[in-house]
From TrEMBL:
Organism per entry: Cellvibrio mixtus
Record's protein name: Uncharacterized protein
Domain of life: Bacteria
């Protein structure tokens, strides 16, 4: 039969073509460099903050989303990460923006894009993208890392007047927005206190300095700033002198009798309250106390609420008189129980302890 020679000839021709094709493929120059495997978006966020870069001015034409067919090829997000690692920010931005158009909740893309915007000097876009990221991310640990990074980033911007000297209003708004997410960040409060003091807004400067004084890492700097703002507010007590104040029992807690601009009040002793204040009910009964209000966001157990600060001429506890003292209007209606809270803004100026058996508050000026 002639079938066998024909089949053999066909197989030989096929083999020759196959090996020729393989030879051409093996000698073709490779267009893609080796994949960088020691960089990730997570590492980008956790890494130390770089110096503030100059504004990027490259005009790069749009890049279509790459398509991949090989199992070993990069995904679009991996490709963007690779471009960032090699400094190809223009293409990385366009690819990440296209990914977010396709999936607006792609948290990893937002986090990487925020860092790229920062590298390009597009700080407003970077900060806005961080806030979008916090709404999209579901991993609590990653959110905490991102919040700390953004706090440091904003403090760096606020500390660099060359970069953002003319955008103080925008910076203050971003710091306030971030404080709503991280109310215990003393560095943010301290930075806002300094900014408000520069603008001669002593009430808000004092408020944020008090918030910073509640945190161990910023306490010493905050107390120094408070002295600069308004002194210690004590006109008639010497350093080291002890004052004993009789308390009124209120269940397992205590009430402190005080006088505020001539009005008697009972304030609940609360060592966990950052700032002293009066209940909404008491303020409504004695509205003449309220002057020069400053709106604030007050963090409570029920969440953040809108309220305001005001300064009274004096708060008197026994022989202690605090002049030009700032109080907050508290969203509390306890007219028949107590009239407000006495917090660490006053207690923190003393070494103090509570004698629960005798119902006495012992204060010694630092």
């Amino acid at each position: 039969m002639r079938l066998a020679p024909v089949l053999a000839l066909t197989l030989a021709a096929f083999a020759a073509g196959f090996y020729a094709s393989e030879y051409r493929h093996s000698t073709r120059p490779q267009s893609n460099p080796a994949v960088i495997t020691n960089y990730s978006a997570a590492e980008a966020v956790a890494s130390a903050a770089p110096q503030l870069p100059a504004e990027a001015d490259a005009d790069i034409s749009p890049v279509p989303l790459p398509s991949y067919s090989s199992a070993s090829a990069l995904t679009p997000l991996e490709q963007a990460t690779r471009w960032v690692a090699t400094g190809n920010y223009g293409q990385a931005v366009q690819l990440l923006e296209q990914l977010l158009q396709s999936d607006p909740q792609l948290a990893e893309a937002m986090r990487l894009l925020a860092r790229v915007y920062e590298e390009q000097g597009q700080h407003e876009k970077a900060v806005a993208t961080w806030f979008r990221y916090f709404n999209a991310e579901t991993d609590a640990q990653k959110i905490d890392v991102g919040l700390q990074y953004l706090a440091n980033y904003l403090v760096r911007l606020a500390s660099n007047p060359v970069v953002f000297g003319e955008r103080q209003a925008w910076l203050k708004q971003q710091l306030n927005d971030l404080i709503r997410l991280t109310p215990d960040n003393g560095e943010l409060h301290l930075r806002l206190a300094s900014m408000h003091l520069d603008e001669k807004d002593k009430e808000l400067a004092q408020y944020h300095a008090l918030m910073a004084a509640n945190q161990v890492n910023t306490r010493a700097r905050a107390e120094a700033l408070l002295l600069l703002i308004s002194g210690d507010g004590l006109n008639n007590v010497a350093s080291g002198e002890e004052v004993i104040i009789g308390l009124q029992r209120f269940g397992k807690q205590f009430l402190v009798p005080v006088t505020i601009d001539g009005f008697s009040a009972r304030l609940l002793l609360d060592t966990g309250a950052s700032i002293s204040g009066l209940t909404a009910t008491f303020v409504e009964r004695h509205y003449s106390l309220v002057r020069n209000t400053k709106p604030i966001k007050l963090n409570t157990a029920s969440g953040s609420v809108d309220t305001y600060l005001f300064v009274v001429n004096s708060v008197t506890l026994e022989s202690l008189e605090f002049t030009q003292h700032m109080l907050a209007r508290l969203p509390m209606d306890n007219a028949n129980q107590f009239d407000g809270l006495l917090g660490v803004d006053i207690l923190g100026r003393f070494e103090f302890f509570i004698d629960q058996e005798k119902a006495e508050l012992h204060l010694r000026k630092r």
